[in-house]
Amino acid sequence: MLKITKNAGTPGHPVHSARPKASDAVTVLTFYLLVLLVVPSDRRVAALGGAGAPAGLFALASLLWWCWHHIQHPHAAWTRRFQPVRTAMFVYCAAVAASYAMASLSALPPTDISVADMGLLRVAAFAGILLVANDGVPSGERFLVLIRRLCLLAGLYAGLGLVQFFTGISIVDSIQIPGLTSSAVGGTEARAGFIRADATAMHPLEYAMVLVMALPFCLTLALYDKKRSAFLRWFPVAAIALSSVLSVTRSALLGLVAVVLVLLPTWPRAARRGMIAAFAVVLVGVYVAVPGMMGTIVGMFSGGSSSVSSRTSSYDTVVGFVELSPFFGRGFGTFLPSYRILDNQYLSAAIETGLVGIIALLLVIVCAGAVALAGSRREPDPLLKHLGTALLASTIGGALLTAFFDCFAFPQACGMLFLVLGLCGSYWNLTRNSVPAKPVAAP
């Protein structure tokens, strides 16, 4: 991890730059994204059980790498400055540790105690990837490199989902990786006669969350990153938008609407009109090319749903468990599916880490969104400025979808969430000394 340095630029318009080492945090995070999105999410190191997900192991190694750099550079600027997202993450880790202590002192079944031990490792992995992203990106240029790589991977990820939708073949089930075993039932799901694609994810909802959180970055680069070819800029946008519409998942559509509503007011009028027209073309194309899909989408929102009623009927169960240990919960990860499937990570967090834990988790999310918004307001460079809004939209989209399923049980979903939260903190670091851009009157 390197210090953030700024070379002299035009007055009031500093240039973010630094000479990165051969291997900095951006390289580490790129490998993490490859492991996270390319390796099927259900693969595990069999000897490690539930803690054997490759992305989780990589994130734990990242935490050790972050600790080593703090020891090696105790007086570096990024170790001494106040970091809102990093501080909020430490508060959340303390809340999880308190819930673990409660689990150890409670008369829980042995299976729940063992899961609590594994829960500590999972939270350490979350913290590792967030801290590396928060503290390790050395410059705006390297930050942009990471976002470009993320968008390319997300486009390929969505493209694999499209292949699954139109062929009905999972593809990833036939992939054998030495040393890894599958921990989930293979094959593709179907709803209303349509294939629910999931690319390399374990579940369509996990797939939807990755798409929704990547879309704001893809849209921003497509509109403002003029240094790349039109294909590289627009392919991820087209693939993700089409995949979201064809996902047969309410969560993906709601997340898509949420991120577009956040981004739309920040775009120029011509871009707003063009994007609305493009989405209209996508919908018309889906209506013509995939008969029955638009009716299925309308039916998902207009009629009753067993999944919605299952979620709302869980509130009494949640209240009962929270009353048993209201402040620190019963231990992170100890509310097993055998008790009840809540399909809402916030409700699970309230049971497992109590009111203190759920407030701490919300604090991390709110801090990340707030610093991204603050950084975008003072960043003079147009592309980096709009990336701050993209970070805010991605955080909101991820926070919204976290309420629709047990996000922390899925490596790609929670890995993407904490990576973006860490990038919000990194963005704040890179823009904290920027001179706010002065408003320019329209001609």
From TrEMBL:
Q: Which GO terms describe its molecular function?
A: ligase activity
Its chief place of residence is membrane
- Bilayer topology: Multi-pass membrane protein
Which residue ranges does UniProt annotate as crossing the membrane?
21-39, 45-68, 89-108, 120-138, 150-172, 207-224, 231-264, 276-301, 353-375, 387-404, 410-430
User: InterPro entries of this UniProt entry?
Assistant: O-antigen_ligase-rel_domated, WaaL-like
Q: Which residues form the O-antigen ligase-related domain?
A: 237-362
- Keywords of this entry: Ligase, Membrane, Transmembrane, Transmembrane helix
Which is one Pfam family of this protein?
A: Wzy_C
Cellular localisation = Membrane
Q: Which domain of life is it from?
A: Bacteria
Q: What is this protein called?
A: O-antigen ligase
